[in-house]
Structures are given as C-alpha cells and as structure tokens.
Design goal:
The structure is a homodimer.
Chain A: H1 4-15, H2 32-47, E1 51-54, E2 60-64, E3 73-79, H3 92-107, E4 116-121, H4 134-139, H5 145-150, H6 159-165, E5 179-187, H7 192-196, E6 200-206, E7 208-217, E8 221-222, H8 234-251, E9 257-259, E10 263-266, E11 272-273, E12 276-285, H9 288-308, E13 312-321, E14 324-325, H10 328-341, E15 345-350, H11 355-359, E16 364-370, H12 386-404
Parallel strand pairs in A: 3-4, 3-5, 5-16, 6-15
Antiparallel strand pairs in A: 1-2, 2-4, 6-14, 6-16, 7-12, 7-13, 8-11, 9-12, 10-12
Bound molecules: N-(aminocarbonyl)-beta-alanine (2 copies).
Pfam family, one (chains A, B): M20_dimer
InterPro entries (chains A, B): Amidase_Cbmase, Bact_exopeptidase_dim_dom, Peptidase_M20, Peptidase_M20_dimer
Keywords (chains A, B): Hydrolase
C-alpha cells in the first residue's frame, strides 16, 4: 500500500514552486520554476536509487532497475508544468504518484521482474510554447523533434533555447522501443466521478478531437441608420453557429462535446454592426465516424447560416486527433487493481488529451482518474482529496506490479 | 444656387488634413490635425467677413450679420472631427455646406433679415474622448461642461487639457438663447436614400436609443471532460441574447433596430467553456413607448436565457436618448426647399445621433440627408456624389433663407 501522507507531502512541497496567492500554481514549461521542480523531482528519485536520463526535448526518465534488466520497462508519469493560473494537481499528481510507487517498493524491498520507470514529460500544457503534449509527442514521433525545438513563444525565444537555458536540453537517447506498458494517474478534470460518487476512473480511452478556426465576413455598418433587412451581421451568423455546435454535440451523447471558446468581433464597437467574426470550434467524440459526421454537420450548418445572412466563411481545421482506445491489458490491470483494493470505480472516457494518448500509439497504455472538486481544473481553485489521490496511486502500484511481474 | 465645384473643392481641401492611405480621414477630436482643420475653417470664414467666437468646449461659431442684428440667428453646421478610420464627408460636409451657403449669399450680395451662423461642434465622434456629441451636448446643457472637460482618454489626458493644447479652449460665452432654428446637412450613413433612388432626405426626427452592458456569468470549465449536460456556458447565453436582440428589432419595423456590437469572452481559450461573456446591446426605435417595450422584452429574454443555462446576469443601461421629433417649421422648410429645387426627396428618420438632435431640445431643429455610397460610413471607403452633396447644400440654402427672411 502507498503512503497517503507521504504522497500528499510531496504534492504540497512541489506546489510551493510557483505558488500563486489564490492557492494555485504558475509553473509554466521551460521557466526557472519548471527547472526547480525538475531538480527537486530528480533529487527525490536519486535518493530512491534511481538512475536518471534526460532526452533532447527535456523529458526526464527515472529508472528503478528490475530483476531482468533487459526486459521492457513498465513506465508511468505525467507532467510537472502548469497553466499560468493552474492548480496543484494537474500533471504533477501523475509524476509524484509514480515516485510514491517507487518509494513504496523500496520501503517494502520489493523487486519487480521488469524495470519501473517514472517520466516527467516536458511541456504538456503548451501555454508558453505550443502545441501541448510536446514532450510525449516528440518522444513518440507524433510531433517532430526539430520542429518542436524551433517553436517560439511571444518573446521570440525558441523552446530549444528555453530548455538550454534551464539546463534540461538532454543528450540521452531514449526511445519508445523497450516499453511494455505506460500507465498515467491524473485528476479527471471533469465532474463525472464526483457526480457518480466513484473514487477511481478506469480510463478506457480518450475522445477524438477536431478543432476549427472559422471566419465569418459580412459588412461593417452603422447600427443606427442600417435597417434590419439590409444587414450582413457576422455576429448573427456566429450566434447561430454557436447554437449549432451545442445542438450537434447534444445529438451524439454520451460522448459528444462541442465548444465555442473564442469569439472575436471586428470592429467591436457598440454602435457598429460586426463586419467580421473570428471564432474557434472544438468538437469531440469517442467514435471516429461519429466525429467525422459531427464535423460534416457543422460544415453544412455554416454553409446554410452564411447563405442566410449573406456572409462569406472560411473554415480551417486547426487540430485533428483520432479517438484513442487503450489496450485491454492495461485497462484490465487498472480495473482489477481497483477491485482488489475495494475502490469504488467506473469505466470512463477521457475528454481531454493526455501524454498517455500519444504513448498509446507506440505501446500499451492506460490511465487512472481520480475526482477533482466540482470537476474544476486549469484553475487556481483546482482541488482534490488526499485519500482519493492515494487510492488512485494504490491502483497504479498494483496495476504496475501486475504488468511488471514479481 | 450654391456652387457644386466650390463645395467639392472645399471638401477635398479639408480631406487632406489627416488623409489616410485608403482614401479616408483620421482627424480625431482635439488632435493637431483637428486644430489644422479648425484653423482652415476659420480662415475661410474670416475671408467671407464672418466674426468668430469660440466657447469653453471649443465649439466655433462663425457669424454673418443680418439686417436685424438683434433678431435670433439661423444656425447650421456639424463637426470637423472624424473616426480613426473615418471618411471624407461624415460631419465635415455639414460644416462646409454652411460655409458654402455664406459664400453663395456673399457672391450674390444677399442680405438676410436674421443673422446666419455656421458652427463646427467639438468632438462629435467621441472616439478619443467619450461621449459623442460632446460640443453640442455641453452647449445645450444636455451634458455638463465641467464633466466633459474632465473626461480623460487612454493616455489619461483630459479633454480640457487637449483642447488647451491645440489652442481651442475658448472664452466666448455663447448660449442657445438667441437661435431661431438649427439646420444640419449630413450624409445619411445608411442605405435608404440610395435604395429608393432619392437625392434628399427630409429628416423628420431621430430614433431613440437605449444602450446596455450585459455580463453573463456561468462556469469556466474544460471543453473535453465536461459533459454537455453539466455545463454553464456563458457563450450559449450570449448567442441566444444576440438572436433575441435581432428578433425584437425585427418585430417592430420599420423603425426597430437591434445590434450586438461587442462580445468579449473570458477566458477566451479554444478548449475552455467560456465562464463569462461581456457584451453590449444597442436598441433603437422612433416611438418612445415601443422602445421601452423592446427593452422590457430584452430584459425578459435575458432572464429566461440565464435561468435556462444557469447563468447569472447583470444588465446595466449605458445610454438612453429619447426619440426626437423635429419641429414642423424646420421640416417644412426643408421639404419645401427640396420641392422648389426639384430634388427627388423623401421623409426619413435618422437612425444615428447627431448634433441637431441636442439642438432640437433648445430650439427648432431639422436635418437634410444626402445619400452615401452603399450606405457606408465610419469607414475610409465612405463616398458621396458631388451633385448630391450640392443638392443637399442648395436645400439648406433655401430652407435657411426661408427661416432667416429676406
Ligand atoms: N489534459 C489537458 O488539459 N489537455 C489539453 C488538451 C485538451 O483540450 O484536451
Ligand atoms: N452620427 C453618428 O455616427 N452618431 C454616433 C452615435 C450613434 O450611434 O447614433
């Protein structure tokens, strides 16, 4: 059994780095605070006898040798970086749950057959340097390493330079070839476990995502002298599209999601009819064909709306991730561990992208969710219970033991 | 008859001050370019023998004495300031049409009984210093003089300081007491005259305006893991309100107008459900009771929408102008002049606010509209025909002669 207090203390110690007045954390990727959290993680791992490797994108791999050093390792981990107004648990929980597994194995002197590795993936949040999941993306070849290192932030500093500056542009060659399975603990970032009273989410996969940029162009005109019948109001089009996104997502439940998160009006003046609106659309579903269908329906609605309001439109895909179904072996290990430990649990689909999803494309992968208060994440008020976090960590320990063998 | 070429030349000469690459004008209130346009206007008026007075808010009054100097004057004018991306005609046409009237009277040596005055009102656009119609508002007591002088721009400079800096914080005491009538020429800023093939709009009044700021507050949450049924999406509320504004305005035609010109989302991120939307609503109608009814319907819709999407709302009025019905005497003078001159004309209601509306509260007032290309204004591509502009100016001349007497 993992140690609830020890896990909680580690989380609270890490949360001091970049702590914000409102109780959250601002520890963005490749900043000095990111460096401090990496240093601390490495210190803790070395104290447990782990060997450390750092690859070219700054991913940190801490390895606890197995009885069979040549056998593929069982890996866990998540990320240490946060959103600018992030919480104390998103990402860091998955890293420190991995550390807690190693501490528990050491404490009880348990030797696994396969090596155990804990990874801290670089820049999962993607706020300072886009895109998100940069470290696991580059590691798994889903994103190009050179491309990622060349990405610049608003100050025109490249990810490679920033990584170099904090001393984490590593030289170890680590490949996904010798990994038997990857498991990741994470807070749910949604309200379902809390709503259903479950402690552990057995993550069976993740929703696919299709993101779009939409520009609607009408005619900017004076709000007073322009009769209603002679308007080409881009905001009316945007309102219809927003409602359609909601309608389409609702039509494909329980897994449909549709969100309009950005809406920018031009010129954005009280008494001017908006001549142009630029907006974003985020569609998600667990079924690949349904997701395609949702995107087609969206396209159709945009065509009709544009025609109706005499608007021109430009619809551009900005991201496209297919749904991920995790390997049965990993999902079963997690479910069995939850049962063995008597944790209330349910199968759940991840609505968000995670490093484990990229890992699922190169090896067997799975995830363990624990509830977060009111389902709130990417927010300084993000909160989770010590006992839930420890339950998830215990499930991770047992699932990893099953995968690694004794 | 006024001189089409002379009027056009004056307009084109003035348009050089603050000319923009796209053929428009950027000559915002109380800038050095505003000073240059004022200097030029005064030079031209002095050359016609006018006396000049400048009041505390920078309004410029150019007076051509009448045969009966003590009789109340007949006044015309508009504004020289422009939007940041404004056109060559909005405002400046009304000022230079007044100058053209004086030039024509001088040319033909016509003496009117009542004095004639041409005014250039300060800061009609209100872009650098809010609110709009500052000069006529302060002159007519609709806006407080001290309050207006204290208004600051984004650089924290006060209107009073800016006026002082360009040398136009005047000391002449000019009051609305001795004005018989006020007439203003202006481009329509809408498409109705062009659409109906008329050259002159006999403005019978102006729509009342009710402006609102609306804040809708829901709950910011992650777009992936948050099921549709557990969302409190402020943007869905904003979309419904936008459509309701349109529906309400359409229900009260021909005079109803409803516009959502500003919509700001928080946090404004692709994969975050908007937790808050701040938006503006501009409702207009010619009938005061109908306008009140429209505002009530809006309020009701916002209540229902907020309840439906579990949002909180805050609705704050930000402007409230009652409809203006111009004095019969002025409207008749304009209509008769158009008939006498054989201009195709129609009665029209101004959708926009104008200095003449404030003047209508302290004396008899009227307006003359001429078409602008595609109804477009507040835009560098704003355009108008020399012959239409001259027709409107001729109507002004004849209407003023009727008011001033020979
Ligand atoms: N876990 C997470 O916040 N991922 C970001 C990408 C997404 O929107 O799913
Ligand atoms: N004429 C004009 O643009 N006035 C501004 C105020 C309004 O929106 O009516």
């Amino acid at each position: 059994r993992t140690d609830r207090e020890r896990l909680w203390q580690a989380l609270m110690e890490m949360a001091k780095l970049g702590a914000t007045p409102k109780g959250g954390v601002n520890r963005q990727a490749f900043t000095d605070l990111d460096r401090q959290s990496r240093d601390l993680f490495i210190d803790w791992c070395r104290a447990e006898g782990c060997t450390i490797r750092i690859d070219a994108i700054g991913n940190i791999f801490a390895r606890r040798e197995g009885q069979e050093p040549d056998s593929p390792s069982v890996m866990t981990g998540s990320h240490l970086d946060s959103q600018p107004t992030g919480g104390k648990f998103d990402g860091v929980y998955g890293v420190l749950a991995g550390l807690e597994v190693i501490r528990t194995l050491n404490q009880h002197d348990i030797r696994t057959r396969a090596p155990i590795e804990v990874v801290a993936w670089s820049n999962e949040e993607g706020c300072r340097f886009a895109p998100c999941m940069m470290g696991s993306g580059a590691f798994t070849g889903q994103l190009g390493l050179e491309d990622m290192l060349a990405r610049t932030n608003e100050e025109n500093i490249s990810a490679g330079e920033a990584l170099e500056a904090i001393g984490y542009r590593g030289t170890d060659r680590v490949t996904p070839d010798h990994i038997k399975a990857f498991l990741e603990c994470h807070i749910e970032q949604g309200p379902i476990l809390e709503d259903t009273g479950n402690t552990v989410g057995v993550v069976v996969g993740a929703l696919g995502q299709k993101w779009f940029d939409l520009t609607l162009t009408g005619l900017e005109a004076h709000a007073g002298p322009t009769p209603m019948s002679l308007r080409r109001d881009a905001m009316l089009g945007a309102a219809e599209v927003t409602q359609a996104v909601n309608r389409i997502a609702n039509a494909y439940q329980p897994h449909g999601r549709g969100t309009v998160g950005v809406v920018n009006l031009h010129p954005g003046s009280r008494n001017v009819i908006p001549g142009q609106v630029k907006m974003t659309i985020d569609l998600r579903h667990f079924d690949s064909e349904t997701l395609t269908l949702m995107a087609e329906e969206l396209h159709q609605v945009i065509k009709e709306t544009s025609q109706h309001h005499e608007l021109e439109f430009e619809l551009t895909p900005s991201a496209d991730f297919s749904p991920e179904h995790f390997a049965d072996s990993c999902v079963s290990s997690v479910r069995r561990a939850a049962e063995t430990l008597g944790c209330s649990h349910m199968d759940i689909v991840s609505g968000a992208g995670h490093d484990a999803i990229f890992m699922g494309r190169v090896t067997q992968a799975g995830m363990i969710f624990v509830p977060c208060e009111n389902g709130i994440s990417h927010n300084e008020i993000e909160n989770a219970e010590a006992s839930d976090l420890n339950d998830g960590c215990n499930v991770l320990l047992h699932a990893m033991l099953e995968q690694a063998g004794l």
